[in-house]
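Long-time lurker, first post. I've been practising inverse folding by hand and with some scripts of my own, and I keep getting stuck on stretches where the structure tokens seem ambiguous. Below is the full token string for one chain I'm working on. Before anyone asks, I'm not after the true native sequence, just a reasonable design that respects the backbone. If someone could post their per-position residues I'd love to compare against what I wrote down in my notebook.
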């Protein structure tokens, strides 16, 4: 088990010990995160899960959708540019939550323990209270401006005007009552009746457009996982409306054919190749959006001819300026700061990668007072004004414009990898930095043979096409390598905003390893002996 908070990892371990499978543990952990990591864990957000249960591979899309009243120009300011405040703060920024129905749907198909048992650890944390971590105190303090806008939120998270003190016990009675009804009645307890009315009421009060009918009408979707092979491994990741899996697949396949393996580790050529494949992949991302409106998909973007074309445009010893990267000349293409990831493997070898989010820390900042949870601000993942950057600096296209009922494009990349009896489960938080972080952890692990924790710890690089910058964590590049890359035309920025990866794996000899990212909150644990 690896997840962002100790109490959540422990909830998963408790479920595994009591005979639950990987899905039971993942759902219990996700719900515990909704209590102890309120900035990202959620009931008012959405996410994706990729699972292998027995021989079956499946992926569930419980991404938020735009409310029925959403319009493509709803986040434009008077000059036609994006109004960042409108798409980020307050309930107008909220998509229809997917988590309540999503986690239940995942459990219903694959869980083994009764639903009530799986919700119980989270319920207990909210009802009996939990000890506030230093991280949580700092996180609330860091988001004070967002949280104090709404008295409903401040009453819970800024009692007496101050963040809860680290080391003190906090109880969340409204959230506990919500989890109790969720345990007893399933998702309708949160998406219909009095609960749905409470959400509509507080949303309307602050200018939002969420309606009861949006909540009752929300459906998660089972989608075909995105499967591909590279470096002798077989992978299953999330397809659209997540872009992370497509970026990961394109870049892994390209790096293999660019003979990544033959270049020295930590050298300039490898860094150059990373920058060049990412630059092209993120340019392709410009075409992506909800499966119904996307201008390209995993099939067209992983087409061998398209990848061969992309490969042919990469030059040795010269950075391609991002402005020169062609977007999709293929006739076959149709013209037309917070997340949390958890990884679980159980004793039977079942695997779950689950990433869930409110988007930014505490979502839109508004807490539904009767229910005790935050609404997301996922609407900012749409291209508010196509061609302009969003919160993660991602420049996105027409396919991802706002539209009623649409799912906003995500960068999440919950991913499974297999080779014989070995397997790896991973994913990350961190917006557009997710697929680049996941790729580097996989390369460290599968190609360069690092132990799991080392693979996660190593400094990382990032490039996302626009802005045309190769971002490097301190120590990711030696001074000589940096100099060579600059000579080749890369503009380099030292930066510390890579994504945070949580991962587990099963080794060929049957042992398990789990690793949490030292850059962010995270706790990894292995149950020993396994039930
Ligand atoms: O779906 C996405 O790509 C974003 N909403 C993810 C947000 C995220 O990872 C925030 N983490 N720091």
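-- Answer (accepted) --
I ran through it position by position. Result:
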């Amino acid at each position: 088990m690896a997840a962002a908070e100790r109490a959540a990892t422990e909830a998963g371990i408790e479920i595994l010990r009591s005979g639950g499978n990987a899905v039971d543990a993942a759902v219990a952990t996700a719900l515990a995160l909704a209590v102890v990591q309120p900035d990202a864990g959620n009931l008012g957000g959405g996410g994706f899960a990729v699972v292998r249960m027995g021989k079956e591979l499946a992926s569930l899309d419980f991404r938020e959708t735009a409310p029925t009243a959403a319009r493509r120009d709803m986040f434009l300011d008077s000059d036609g540019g994006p109004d960042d405040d409108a798409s980020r703060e307050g309930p107008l920024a909220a998509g229809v939550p997917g988590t309540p129905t999503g986690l239940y749907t995942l459990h219903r198909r694959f869980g083994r323990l009764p639903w009530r048992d799986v919700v119980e650890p989270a319920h207990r944390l909210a009802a009996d209270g939990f000890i506030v971590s230093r991280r949580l105190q700092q996180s609330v303090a860091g988001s004070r401006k967002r949280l104090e806008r709404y008295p409903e939120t401040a009453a819970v998270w800024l009692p007496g005007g101050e963040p809860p003190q680290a080391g003190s016990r906090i109880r969340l009675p409204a959230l506990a009552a919500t989890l109790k009804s969720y345990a007893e009645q399933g998702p309708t307890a949160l998406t219909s009746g009095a609960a749905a009315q409470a959400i509509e009421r507080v949303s309307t009060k602050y200018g939002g457009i969420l309606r009861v009918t949006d909540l009752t009408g929300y459906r998660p979707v089972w989608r075909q996982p995105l499967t591909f092979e590279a470096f002798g491994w077989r992978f299953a990741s999330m397809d659209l409306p997540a872009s992370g899996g497509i970026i990961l697949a394109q870049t892994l396949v390209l790096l293999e054919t660019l003979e990544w393996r033959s270049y020295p580790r930590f050298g300039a050529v490898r860094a150059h190749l990373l920058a060049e494949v990412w630059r092209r992949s993120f340019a392709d991302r410009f075409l992506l959006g909800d499966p119904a409106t996307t201008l390209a998909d995993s099939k067209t973007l992983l087409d061998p001819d398209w990848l061969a074309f992309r490969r042919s445009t990469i030059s040795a010893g010269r950075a391609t300026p991002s402005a020169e990267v062609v977007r999709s000349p293929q006739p076959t293409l149709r013209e037309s700061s917070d997340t949390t990831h958890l990884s679980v493997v159980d004793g039977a070898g079942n695997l779950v990668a689950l990433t869930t989010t409110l988007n930014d820390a505490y979502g839109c900042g508004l807490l539904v007072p009767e229910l005790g949870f935050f609404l997301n601000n996922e609407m900012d993942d749409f291209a508010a004004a196509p061609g302009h950057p969003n919160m993660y600096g991602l420049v996105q296209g027409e396919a991802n414009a706002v539209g009623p009922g649409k799912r906003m494009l995500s960068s999440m990349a919950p991913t499974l990898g297999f080779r014989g009896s070995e397997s790896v489960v991973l994913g990350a938080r961190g917006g557009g930095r997710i697929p680049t972080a996941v790729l580097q952890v996989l390369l460290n692990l599968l190609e360069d043979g690092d132990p799991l924790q080392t693979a996660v710890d190593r400094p990382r690089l990032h490039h996302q096409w626009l802005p045309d910058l190769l971002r490097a964590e301190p120590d990711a590049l030696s001074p000589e390598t940096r100099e060579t890359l600059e000579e080749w035309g890369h503009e380099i920025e030292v930066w510390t905003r890579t994504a945070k990866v949580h991962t587990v794996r099963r080794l060929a000899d049957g042992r398990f390893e789990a690793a949490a990212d030292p850059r962010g909150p995270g706790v990894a644990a292995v149950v020993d002996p396994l039930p």
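A couple of notes from the structure itself: Residues 329-336 have pLDDT under 50 and may be disordered. The radius of gyration is 22 Å. Happy to go over any region you disagree with.
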